[in-house]
Design brief:
144 residues
């Protein structure tokens, strides 16, 4: 059983890696995706926002901004944290490193219970979710 996990995530994908020893390379143990996280707000809603006209014939849209996309991303962040918490309760790891796109890292923090947060050794605000295990490992301390 490995004692070190590394999660690498953005709004559309998350990958969990393990390392058996502090100087080891990373082995991917799980990956999951959120295809809706790659879509634009307009692609996520079926009803277009209303339109208003201003004085000189210009028309402007109004609506909920990025609310739907934020909701989709927030649900995915909760799912990632739920999976990490499941690993924690199963004693699958003792230390956790989190590498995530900056905005997604903030969402992950909202869903981390204190028990999980206590095992996080470092957080790195960068999006490496599509990178190779070697490239990801290069961004981490020499000894995890």
């Amino acid at each position: 059983m490995s004692k070190i996990w590394v999660v690498v995530a953005d709004a559309s994908r998350a990958r969990i890696f393990s390392a058996a020893k502090p100087a080891d390379g990373l082995t991917e143990i799980e990956a999951f995706s959120n295809p809706e996280g790659r879509l634009h707000e307009g692609d996520l809603i079926s009803d277009r926002g209303g339109r208003i006209s201003s004085g000189e014939g210009a028309r402007h849209g109004y609506g909920a901004g990025n609310q739907v996309k934020d909701d989709v991303t927030n649900r995915f962040a909760a799912e990632v944290c739920k999976r990490l918490e499941k690993g924690r309760t199963a004693h699958a790891f003792e230390r956790l490193y989190v590498l995530a796109a900056p905005a997604f890292l903030g969402m992950l923090r909202k869903h981390q219970p204190d028990t999980l947060r206590a095992l996080i050794k470092d957080e790195i605000a960068t999006d490496l979710s599509t990178q190779s295990p070697e490239r990801i490992r290069a961004q981490l301390p020499e000894y995890l």
